[in-house]
Amino acid sequence: MSDRGLKLRGRVRAVLGNNIDTDIIYPGRYLNITDREKTAEHLFELAHPEIRAELQAGDFIVADHNFGCGSSREQAAAALKFAGAGAVIAASFARIFFRNAINLGLPAVVSADAAIRCSAGDELEVDLVAGEIRNLTKDEVFAAAPLDPRAAELLAAGGLIPYLKRKYIDGARNLCLNIV
Amino acid sequence: MTLAEIILARASGRECVSPDQIVIARVDLAMSHENADLVRKSFLEIGVGRVWDTSKIVIIFDHRVPAESEKTATTHRAVREFVAAQGIQHFYDVGRGGICHQVLAEQGHVRPGMVVVGTDSHTTTHGAFGAFATGIGATEMAGVWTEGTLWFKVPSTLRIEVEGEFRPWISAKDLILRVIGMLGAAGADYRAVEFDGTAIRRMTVASRMVLANLAMEMGAKVAFTPVDDVLVDYLRPRVSEKLEILEPDRDAVYERVIHLNAEEDLWEPQIACPHSVDHVVPISEAGEVPVDQAVLGSCTNGRLEDLEVAARVVAGRSVHPRTRLIVVPASQQVYREAMRLGYLETLIAAGAIINPPGCGPCVGVHQGILAAGENCVSSTNRNFLGRMGSKDSFVYLASPAVVAASAIAGMLVHPESIVKESEPCPIEV
Predict the structure, then answer these.
(1) Domain boundary residue among B237, B262, B287?
(2) Residues B324, B296: contact at Cβ < 8 Å?
(3) Among B47, B139, B391, whose Cβ lies nearest the Cβ of A74?
(4) What percentage of chain A has pLDDT greater than the value 70?
């Protein structure tokens, strides 16, 4: 398996609390936008518009528990990805958001300590497979849950669409999801 | 095995499964609403050409019906054209269906033992029909349209047993809000929930759907109510296939069993206060809340039973001058029945406006948006910041009886304060 995209480096753009719901991430009124790239314009629009304004490519969003709770709207994960977020790192994720993120190729990293041990502006190195986060600014290392091999394979492929393209159109064999 | 384990074992061709195991399960039904347009785009990008099974995909427009903008009209058209080109067999266009979860139920699309996925988080509703039913995203659905299968981590199960009789004015909505308040917004994350006990087994199918629907708001992957005679009686006229009574095994292993008593643990109607569904208090502790808008509807509480309760509360009374009462029947079928039975006449006479069947104001896109500073009492399912309009508006979630009574009082009130003691309590849980 290629480790393309499975080691990340970037800055923490924001540290958020518990239960950041999908309406906060992406308001329901924009659900009729179905061009994924355009969803980025409305990221955190109601509650935290400054995050969208300040987000640089590769930045991390850090949060506490149950990030992405609520709706199944994929636009929540798409808006983060196309606004340039390198990953979301949270103590836990709501399950649909987690799957959406991985399916779109946006790393969703589970780390109990991240919200406590990171401040906005910190520079991090994240090893998704080893499950290790290095806070370069604070010179600390802490644990993340190592990425499930299936999720790692989807991320390495760039998401579910390229993965399925490889499987069905390019006829790739030996894909992990295929043999479970 | 628990119900979730039994269904996933069968759907993945195994003798047995246990929590945390990853399985690839056969999908029996794949439902989408307007976001079928997103699914369609992802599906076309994958490039396999034809969907896996035209008989197992159901598409129902409900989030923006009729189209509220040219943009929506364009996506509706794109989905219609895709449905025709692929020969997808079950499509409910504007005016033919209603809210997706109500339509799946009414039309008998869901049976015990099925694996159902939907691009809508409240797909958990169909656990009330004994299905392993859960929400997924649009790209994942494009994968299902391609392969007809999906990977699942087998969830552990919370069992919630409720005994006893409900007090007057207490409904399934109050029970599930109380449970969400106890367990929290992440209290059932990644888990299956089984509701059972004498209080649940006495419930109507409509009430059971409320429990399975709102279990999503504590993170549940799936939520079941019993597969029993009450359910079979509901399904029989709607379903031609043989129905199976599914029960969890006697030696099923649960992560946790929670015991509640309907009489002792639920004294008052429950309110979920802004801006979180687990911010639940008994109505006497919700404070003085003037109500600008009252909403009765949604996949949670827009069914015939809900409209009946509201009609009986408002009969012969008038909606308070400062309050707007918006009623949204959950489906065309509910709309017609409510019309035939006179509920709509009663509601309109009291000053309610009737919206077309659909999600309407619940998802905050049209047909009843809130202004800054406004309070709304709503029978819907989410009170997140900005959910129903301005980020400076406030949504209180409550039962249909509380919504109707509050519309009359112009304040958040217990229905007791509106309905005279001589009138019977209209709630049949």
Answers:
(1) B262
(2) no
(3) B139
(4) 92
